Predict the structure of 4-hydroxybenzoate polyprenyltransferase.
Amino acid sequence: MSKTISYLRMMRPANIVTSVADVLAGIAITGIFADSGAFMMQGYLSTTLLLCFSTACLYGGGIVFNDVFDAELDKIERPERAIPSGIISKASAATLGSVLLITGIAAAVVCGSLSGMLAVGIAFFALLYNRISKHHPFFGPLNMGLCRGLNLLLGISILPDVLQHWYMLAVVPIIYIFCITMISRGEVHGGSKGNLYIASGLYGIVAGIIAYFGYRNGTLLLTSVFLIPFIWMIFRPLLKAIQQPVGKNIGAAVKAGVISLILMDAAWAATFSTFFVALLIACLLPLSMWLAKIFAVT
């Protein structure tokens, strides 16, 4: 049982829920949720479930490989983790990560060739980040942002023809995750106020872009129902970290940033789909927060 729990901890279940929210937001952007009859009749429900399963496997696999490649460093900084503590061997973790990534790609391929290519891209950039770019101050955060951007596009790929119109929206999660990844570098030893100020500015840009599309689509009021709590949830711990940039406060800001992705995704759904769909996505937030109390987010 302890080994099973350790495998789950390694996969960061709370984070996986946020990746599912990304895909649901992407699907909402296509507008297919708006016509519930067509959604059920044309087989989009099964495709939606497959894409959610795909992203869960891809995210879980990427996170497992994060621990595989960080095993030596974790012996010093996080000796309580599964691999450095000896509960799970490095080889077993690598096998689990490989199976998850391959399964995630296979599930996406079933949904379509474009979805399959995006899944391959997510797996590639996840491994690239873990193995090479993670410790680079610019390309590391950018690399991680690309994974989330492609994840949003994975959802939009449910309607391949729509992707060419909305692919540029991937820049929003790219910027957002760039910020979180940049901030997270100070989790262990503390961070610089400069990076935190940059992050606050980029957070503002992200919120502004979502608000712009809400205004453009005539759904700003509905978008604000989710956008305002999103802004409050990310800025509250960030401002505390700016005042005292110690590891504990920065870790709290990172945790809030990751989990708040669900509210950002709900805001996208309110902007492009219906309030009901946005509310369903937002309902993933308490699940992710509950899992975050049991399993580490970072």
